[in-house]
Amino acid sequence: MSAPFEERSGVVPCGTPWGRWYQTLEEVFIEVRVPPGTRAKDVRCSLQSRHIALAVRGQELLQGKLFDSTVTDEGTWTLEDRQLIRIVLMKTNRDAGNCWTSLLENEYAADPWVQDQMQRKLTLERFQRENPGFDFSGAEISGNYSKGGPDFSSLEK
Q1: Between 44 and which of 25, 29, 55, 153 could a Cys-Cys bridge form, CB atoms 3.0 to 4.6 Å apart?
Q2: Where is this region: Disordered (predicted)?
Q3: What is the reported pLDDT for 8?
Q4: Architecture (CATH level 2) of domain 3-128
């Protein structure tokens, strides 16, 4: 079995003061750098449908209302190498037109170029799903790809 689309094609990250975030059609990934030696018991992470809160050793690192809704009981966080917290949120709306423009409402927005690249990536991921025999991981896209690109589902096969 081949690697998932995002592993073959790479990710389009949006840098932040605390780390970065990026997205696929189904998920939003958040990577937060924490002081080396951080232990799981030092971490307080609350993941709700539209809200996130993360504190390490009592210091708030990330808190606010998410850009869009997520599936509450499918959100997870892990501490890796005692210096990186990785949070994975499952989007409620999983179509290519649902490209988050920021992580939180009015905070940690992707700049216009990054936003454009994110939307292109999600559109190609959608094409990959619709055409499983083809590999779109190295493809370039131009033209109308906003809101998930053109809809070819009504065309006869």
Answers
A1: 55
A2: 138-157
A3: 66
A4: Sandwich (2.60)
